[in-house]
Amino acid sequence: MNPYQPGRSNAELAAHSDPAGDEQLAFGGVITAHDFAVMIPHRTIVQFLLVVVTPVCVLCAVTAIMMALAEVNRSPWTLPMVLAVGAVLIGMPIGAYQLLATQRAGRILKRRPDLLGTVQGTISVDGMLLNDGLRRHWFSATSIRQSRVLKSGVRVQLAQDPYHFLALSTRLFDHFDPDRLKSWLRQWRHRTATTPPSTPPIACATRLGMPPADAVNFAGQVTLQIPTDTPESRKQAWSLTAQLVIAFAVLILACLSEPGNWNGFTLAALLATISYAWAVFATWRLILQGSKPHTITQSGWIGENELLIESAGNASRCPLSCFHIHPIHDQDVIWFAGELSMIAITKDILASMDEWQRLIDRFPAR
After folding, report:
1. Is 366 in a helix, a strand, or coil?
2. pTM, to two decimals
3. Which of 95, 121, 272, 348 could form a disulfide with 247 if both were Cys (CB 3.0 to 4.6 A apart)?
4. In this structure, are strands 314-319 and 306-311 parallel, antiparallel, or unpaired?
5. Taken in order 66, 72, 78, 83, is the CA torsion positive or negative?
6. For residues 246 and 280, is the Cβ–Cβ distance under 8 A?
7. Number of H helices and number of E strands within the chain?
8. Cβ(211)–Cβ(301) below 8 Å
9. Alpha carbons within 13 A on the beta-carbon side of 239
């Protein structure tokens, strides 16, 4: 979200965006990291790891070290093996600590700082109108149908990624009405379930105002190459590689300590090594591909100072100053690169060659 506070109050924004003010809930204020951490989804496996596995691992680590000290004279491999097991078991609670909501929230928000900051808008039975002070967004009911009403507020799910959401705390609302919000959520989900997939989507761009007279309109499908070799993916790959090395070392020590005896511990080490090896292979293979194709259907317009894009039931109206514009005329594409998004306008999604020529004249190649 943009750090600049919009000038209108919640009530004024509600009245401006929809005449039926009684059929919407207005909100406004600053979303903080604490709001995000409070609403972060808690998965059963994470809770199990934190509550059950962590204390068991600590106990096992202490036991393993005591066994090593007691049995060190029986085999030269006993001490290294048990110490390796103890190191793995100690590392598991440390990994579990990283699963705490505050820790996960911190990592997520480093990648998605736009999920924090000043917001102002309304939620209605049709969807959500949002103003971050610089850009205006409309999210249709079908696109945010996976949202949840919590005691702390509303977790507005913006994408399939469970951690890509807006944390609208109760303090942001002029009047927080959980019953009405839950009723709307049920309607959103029912509407999605009962609408045939072939039904044409209802244009939502008009929710953000009419286009300027000089706007160039576009509509169609664009295939983008999404990079897979990113700092985040390489960090994950190296982390998995390190865990593979540890698992393999434990397997070797287990085999050397009792040659020919495939006990339960040795088999567990073997299975862990195979699992990590597959994960490392899959992760590095995706990174080495460099990119993967992603096709989206989009429509909108480009004006003298603004751009509007609509896709998958959502629309955003932004000043052109939000983008770095990269015209590549010989490839018939103009790239609009934002901080966290990329928009490609190609010649074949415009109505005519005259429209494309207008864009070329407006955004000459550098």
Report:
1. coil
2. 0.68
3. 272
4. antiparallel
5. positive
6. no
7. 10, 14
8. yes
9. 8
- Residues contacting residue 190 through CB under 8 Å, at least 6 positions apart: none
Which pLDDT tens digit goes with each residue over 252-271? Answer: 877 776 666 666 667 777 88
Cβ burial of 27 (10 Å; 0-12, 13-18, 19+) is buried
Residue 173 is encoded by which pair of tokens?
A: 């609302």
Q: Find the helix or strand (DSSP H, E) in which 321 lies.
A: none
Q: Which helix (H) or strand (E) holds 21?
A: none
Amino acid at residue number 255: C
Q: Is 80 helix (H, G, I), strand (E, B) or coil?
A: helix
Classified as helix, coil or strand, 59 is helix
- One-letter amino acid at 119 equals V
Three-class secondary structure assignment of 142-199: CCCCCCEEECCEEEEECCCCCCCEEEEEHHHECCCCHHHHHHHHHHHHHHHHHCCCCC
**Block means of pLDDT (10 residues each) for the chain, length 366 residues?**
42 42 83 88 62 61 61 58 61 57 72 87 92 89 90 90 89 92 90 59 69 88 81 85 83 72 70 85 90 85 90 87 83 79 85 86 79
| Residue pair 164/208 in contact by the 8 Å Cβ criterion | no
Q: How many angstroms separate the CA atoms of 289 and 186, rounded?
A: 41
Work out the burial of residue 74: count CB atoms within 10 Å of its CB; fewer than 13 is exposed, 13-18 middle, 19 or more buried. exposed
Query: Cα(first)–Cα(last) distance of the chain, in Å?
Result: 30
Query: Phi/psi class of residue 333: alpha, beta or left (left: φ > 0; alpha: ψ in -120 to 50)?
Result: beta
